[in-house]
Amino acid sequence: MAITNETLLDPSIDRRLAVDLDAAERDELTAYLDTRGNWTCGRGHLLPRAAAGRSWEGFTVPQTTSDRWFVTDILNAIRLAQRWPEFESCDTDCRKNALYEIAFNMGGRWEEFSPTRAALKAKDWQTVHDHLLASLWAKEVQPHGLDKPGRATRIAGYFLTGEYPSG
Asked: What are the DSSP E strand ranges found in the chain?
């Protein structure tokens, strides 16, 4: 059963955010190395650094653990994004969810995006869009190119328009 089933979600999580995250994150029940070399399991859940001489290789979890981590990680991302000064500029639920997804996916790496964050704070949506798509992050999360639909183009579009596509 997908976590996006509303009975499994915390009621404070917007279902559209959960659906977008669920589609963008692979739900791997066996630990894997992410694009930055971090051990990850479930839907993008970072595992702690393994003890010296140990590895997460072959570590598996049941679906219920992946689902629990997913909800907890979304709630943590929401709290993180709400602490960022640019959060107040997110004037629609769509833009807030875009920032929550940035927090979920990047965490503290967002601190490195000073010009993009300044543009977001200024509500310069075109610059936010363009900076996100020109970033290394966009190439990491959308490795098959920005001309195809994917996470980076979707999030950049959410910031640009402030609206979810119809349909």
From this structure: 28-33, 39-42, 45-46
